[in-house]
Amino acid sequence: MSRGGGKGLSLKDKLDGNELDLSLCDLNEVPVRELAALPKATILDLSCNNLISLPSDFCSLMHLVKLDLSKNRLQQLPLDFGRLVNLQHLDLLNNRLVTLPVSFAQLKNLKWLDLKDNPLDPVLAKVAGDCLDEKQCKQAAVKVLQHMKAIQSEQDRQRQRKLQAEREMEKKREAEQRAKEAQERELRKREKAEEKERRRREYDAQKAAKQEMEKKTKKETVQTRKPASSSRPPQPPRHKPSWSRSVLRVLLFVLFCILCALAACKLTELQRQPLCVSVNTLYEDVVAALQNHKTLQNMLQHNSQQ
């Protein structure tokens, strides 16, 4: 293997049992593919190189039990670093780490940890403490795991609270949307009812106007058919015939009948009939009486003149 991560000497030449020593190789990157081909290499030494970061597929090397990354220039570890669940020994001395990924809490088999000489966050640095001997490094592993588990739990709670808040917000939005839709349905229903009422009033108004027009047209037609009657002055009311007129008419009718009977008895062959004889006699007596009455009237008039 050449410097700078180039491929030269095979990694198998570096393998000693289950230990693979790649320290002081001036590596800028980790040959993950070649390491994955050596599952027997459970102990990996990458110390004293020029590593600034680890590739994400580095976490696929789940067979690693002991890992030495000391004296590099690592600024952060991969987010899924916790996939290295078989890791028991981890040396991160003298790097540029400030924090650890939350997945670090999943390294449940970690027994030994060294984080000295890193610009750690003050809280993390206090938790890690000094790794000056075997006991302190073991305590550092336990305390850091507990700390990272607490951070993970808090993040999970925050995530749950956020998820719950999002669900509540979603429910609220759905409730508001349902209320809005209900209001819109009610508004459309009210507008529809108002439109029906408006059309009904228009229909009633048109019907009334049509009826009024028909009445007016009918009235004009009647007036057109009887123009003279409208121009004539009002006639005075006719008085009913009085009873005296009725009596007069009866008398005239009786007189007419008498004259007809008298004419029949005088001018026809009926004059020899007994009835006609009586009528003629009566007629002559009446004429004589009238003549005497006229004579008497003339005498009276003559006397009055004298």
TrEMBL record:
Pfam families registered for this protein in UniProt: LRR_1, LRR_8
Keywords tagged on the record: Coiled coil, Endoplasmic reticulum, Leucine-rich repeat, Membrane, Microsome, Nucleus, Repeat, Signal-anchor, Transmembrane, Transmembrane helix
Gene Ontology, cellular component aspect: endoplasmic reticulum membrane; nuclear envelope
Lipid metabolism keyword on record: no
PROSITE patterns: LRR (PS51450)
Entries under InterPro entries matching the protein: Leu-rich_rpt, Leu-rich_rpt_typical-subtyp, LRR_dom_sf, LRR_domain-containing
Span of the signal peptide: none
Region of interest called Disordered, as start-end residue ranges on this chain: 151-243
Membrane topology category: Single-pass type II membrane protein
Listed Basic and acidic residues bias regions: 154-223
Main location (coarse class): endoplasmic reticulum
PANTHER family: LEUCINE-RICH REPEAT-CONTAINING PROTEIN 18-LIKE, PTHR48051
Protein's recorded name: Leucine-rich repeat-containing protein 59
Organism: Pachyramphus minor
Lineage: Eukaryota, Metazoa, Chordata, Craniata, Vertebrata
Gene responsible for this protein: Lrrc59
